[in-house]
Sequence to fold (101 residues):
Amino acid sequence: MNDIQKYTIERKKIAIRLLYTILNVVVLEILKAIIYVTVIFQYTYLFIFRSPNEPIRVFSNRIATYAYRVIRYLSLNESTIPFPFSDFPPDVEPPEQQVTF
Fold:
């Protein structure tokens, strides 16, 4: 393969990664909106029932892990394209058992 073809192929890979990056920027903005909604819901629930909603805590932890993976991809610190192009990431760490105030 000559140098011109190699250069073109490398540029094509960069352009494809850029397109995935733009898509993931949109995904990150959607994730931010979901996180805002879950925070508002969680605090509303907390004020009413005086205890956090466990399913929402688990969901929020999964979304935070996913957002972390997206940010790593956007900042060129990870090469695996995030979900839905790969598996949904497992939890990095479980939520704390007891929430303190």
